[in-house]
Amino acid sequence: MKKNTLALTTAHKDLRLSWAKDHMTWNNECHKVVWSDEKKINSDGPDGFSYYWHDLRKEEEIFSTRPQGGGSVMIWASFGWGGKSSICFVESRMNANGYREVLKKRLIDIGSSMGESDWTFQQDNAPIHRAKINLTWFKSQKINVLPRPSLSPDLNPFENLWGVGVGVGVGLGVGVDMCKPCVVNPVFVNGVYINDHTQKAHNVSPFQSGMWSSRYHQYGKWHGPYLFSLLFNDQSMKATGSGVDDVGSFTIDGIYSLKTSRLGLTKQYKRGTGNPLENLGHQVTIQLAWNANNHKFEGKWFVQTSKYHGENKFELKFDQKHKRSPTDYEETWF
Q: Contact, 54 vs 135, CB < 8 A?
């Protein structure tokens, strides 16, 4: 059987050789690079995996496909010396604007954590990646992009990860994390964030102890507002609270940063309260950033249980009508 390969011209080969020579002395420079890639996964098996290594001491694996196929999904992920993102599901037919939105939501927050403060972003030369509007956006965000010669997937170590993670994990039925935030709350709260709404100076800290009004979007509509208490401790940079919504009674634990104006909360529902169909005694991860223009925190909630997976919008606004002192909450919360 003939082996398929990329049709490299002499020009392609020269560019690849030049790129290799320019980077062959890299050492710690590699620590600054955040590698990224997309991958299409078919339900009846990953693209391009027609063969597998077979242990002769074990039985052969039987792989079945459906006549019309089982559909497919497109995923995006990134990793660097300092860590990795979660696998994020994106639109299968993404345009330049859609790709930029993925980077805004999934990359900006954690780039400096995976690389370093002066991190460099790596992507392939897909048309939506190299679109003029996206190259201009990279410059406006002061994100360095690592040049890469065309037809050179082997220069991206992500290809090895796809080969192992997708070929083995998804191909053999091991699922990937869905409806989970790409980063844990501490990374989200303390990460670098570039956004005009959140980087404005505040005369008053947005983190005020008292009653807060919240609402969340689920099942195609907004739920709320619901009031719950929050106490912010500027020494420990932790937040605690409690409340009740249409799911049930809950407690709140979280962390926040005065520098980034971000808030990461974990909502723990008390089983046996509220709606028995919705309340599984589960946790909800909430990640919010302060919007100075709207005077409220905005972000997303994430739930992943054995019975339900979901994520959507979440908003939190201080309720001036129910403002109370921190000592009031020490009596009622603890």
A: no
Query: Domain 186-333 belongs to what topology?
Result: Lipocalin (2.40.128)
CB 210 within 8 A of CB 188: no
User: Long-range contacts of range 1-5, CB-CB < 8 Å, 24 or more positions apart?
Assistant: none
Q: What are phi and psi of 250, to 5 degrees?
A: -150, 160
Residue matched to tokens 């054995």:
306
**E strand or H helix that includes residue 162:** none
Q: How far apart are CA 70 and CA 49, in angstroms?
A: 16
The tally of CA atoms less than 13 A away on the side-chain side of residue 31 is 6
Report how far apart the first and last C-alpha atoms of the chain are (Å, whole number): 71
Distances (CA, A) of 283 to 106, 179, 251, 286: 22, 13, 10, 10
Q: What is the DSSP code string of 166-199?
A: IIIIITTT-----SS-SS-HHHHHHS----TTTS
Domain 28-44+68-177 sits in CATH at 3.30.420.10
User: How many C-beta neighbours within 10 Å does residue 224 have?
Assistant: 14
| CATH 2.40.128.120 residue window(s) in the chain | 186-333
Q: What is the pLDDT along the chain (334 residues), one digit of tens a residue?
A: 445 566 788 888 899 899 889 888 888 888 889 989 888 776 655 555 555 556 677 777 665 555 555 566 778 888 888 777 767 777 667 889 888 888 887 787 777 777 777 889 999 888 999 999 999 999 998 899 998 888 887 788 877 777 665 544 444 333 444 456 666 788 788 865 444 344 444 457 899 999 999 999 988 889 999 999 999 999 999 999 999 999 999 999 999 999 989 999 999 999 999 999 899 999 999 999 999 999 999 999 998 877 777 888 999 999 877 655 444 433 333 2
Q: What is the largest CA-CA distance in the chain?
A: 77
Chain region(s) in the chain for CATH 3.30.420.10: 28-44+68-177
Count, residues in the chain? 334
- Please report, for residues 4, 62, 143, 145, 246, the alpha-carbon distance to residue 84 in angstroms, rounded to integers and kept in the order given: 31, 33, 18, 18, 35
